[in-house]
């Protein structure tokens, strides 16, 4: 029987995948089995690979990481900043897809 802390840790680990990055470039790359995911800034490549494998049931071939910096934007003369985040490009084996529905 698993302890309560192991259930808590497994549940919290899925929170590290924040969502899908939805752009024209990311949609075009899905034909090449590449998926762009927004992940927690503390995740490593091996951790992302194991999370995607356990969450979606696919085999991961490669993981690339991009740390996007915040940018200064202006709207009607008021300055603000966009958020910095970590983006992971997950390449899957041939013939495998992730269904987000």
How would you briefly describe this protein structure?
It is built from 3 helices and 6 strands, in the order H-E-H-E-H-E-E-E-E. With 101 residues, the chain is an alpha+beta fold. It has a single domain, classed as RRM (RNA recognition motif) domain (Alpha-Beta Plaits, 2-Layer Sandwich).
Distance between the termini: 32 Å
User: What's the helix count?
Assistant: 3
Percentage of β-strand residues: 25-35%
| Number of distinct beta strands | 6
Reading off the top of the CATH hierarchy, the class is best stated as Alpha Beta
How would you portray this structure in words?
The chain has helices at residues 4-13, 24-29, 45-56, and strands spanning 17-20, 34-39, 60-68, 72-75, 78-81, 85-92. The chain is of the alpha+beta class and 101 residues long. The strands form 2 sheets. The chain has a 4-stranded antiparallel beta sheet with strand order 1-2-6-3. A two-stranded antiparallel sheet has the order 4-5. The longest helix has 12 residues, at 45-56. Mean pLDDT is 86; it is low at 1-9.
């Amino acid at each position: 029987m698993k302890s309560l802390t192991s259930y808590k840790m497994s549940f919290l680990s899925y929170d590290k995948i924040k969502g899908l990055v939805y752009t024209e470039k990311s949609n075009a790359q899905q034909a090449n089995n590449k998926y762009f995911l927004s992940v927690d800034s503390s995740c490593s490549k091996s951790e992302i690979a194991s999370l995607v494998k356990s969450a979606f049931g696919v085999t991961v071939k490669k993981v690339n990481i991009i740390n996007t910096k915040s940018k200064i934007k202006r709207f009607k003369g008021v300055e603000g900043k966009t958020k910095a985040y970590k983006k992971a490009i997950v390449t899957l084996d041939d013939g495998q897809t992730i269904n987000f529905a």
